[in-house]
Amino acid sequence: MDSQVPSVGVSAQRRGQTMTSMMSVQLSTPPPALMRMVNPLVRRVLTSRVLAARIGTVSLVQVRGRRTGKVLRIPMGLHDIDGVLTAFTRRTWRLNFTGGVPVTVVRRSERREGEAVLVEPTRGQVGAALRAALDNGASPFDLGLKIARGFEPTVLDLDTAGLSMIQFVFDGGFR
C-alpha cells in the first residue's frame, strides 16, 4: 500500500514546490503598526553620524511619492547582490519605485544620490537574489523571511516567498 502523502495544490505542483518547502520559507515581516512606532526612532539613528556608522545593512531611502509628490523617508535593509544594492519587500510603498525614480540614500552616515527601480523579475530572479543575500551573510530575519531550522532553501523556494525586489544604482558605486 502507498504511504499517505498530504496533497499539494495544483499550482504549487506546477511550480515544483512540495508542502514541506512551502512551509519551510515564510514571510516574517513586522506588523505595519509596529513599524509606524519604531521607524521615527530608526530615521533619527540613521541620520546620526555617530550611530549610523555602526548599523549594518539598514539605510534610509528618500523618494518622492508617485501620487502625492511627498518626500518619503523609508528605513530599509539594502543588500549587495553582485555589486548592486538591493532591497526586498512586500510593502505597498514599493510601488513608488515603478519605472525607476531618483533617490537619496543615507547608508552608514554617507549620503548618495542615485536611481532605484522596482524590478519586474523573471522566474527565479528574486529567489536567486535572496539566495545570494543569504550566501553573503544576511540572516533570514534581515530579509523579512522565516526559514525552518535545518532547511536549506532553493532558489525556487525563496522565489515563491512573494517578495518584490528594488535595485539601486549610483554613479561611482556605493558600498
Topology:
Elements: H1 10-14, H2 19-24, E1 25-27, H3 32-46, H4 49-52, E2 58-64, E3 71-77, E4 79-81, E5 84-89, E6 101-107, E7 110-118, H5 125-135, E8 145-147, H6 155-159, E9 164-170
Antiparallel strand pairs: 1-8, 2-3, 2-6, 4-5, 5-9, 6-7, 7-9
Summarize the structure.
This protein has helices at 10-14, 19-24, 32-46, 49-52, 125-135, 155-159; strands spanning 25-27, 58-64, 71-77, 79-81, 84-89, 101-107, 110-118, 145-147, 164-170. By secondary structure, it is an alpha+beta fold. Mean pLDDT is 83; it is low at 1-21.
Biggest sheet strand order reads 3-2-6-7-9-5-4
How many helix segments? 6
End-to-end distance, in Å? Answer: 58 Å
Spans of at least 5 consecutive residues with low confidence? 1-21
Radius of gyration: 18 Å
What's the total count of β strands?
A: 9
| CATH second-level architecture | Roll
> How is the CATH topology named?
Pnp Oxidase, Chain A
Can you write the helix and strand succession as a string? HHEHHEEEEEEHEHE
* Overall number of domains: 1
Summed over residues and divided by their number, the pLDDT gives a mean of 83
Protein name: DUF385 domain-containing protein
Region (Disordered): 1-21
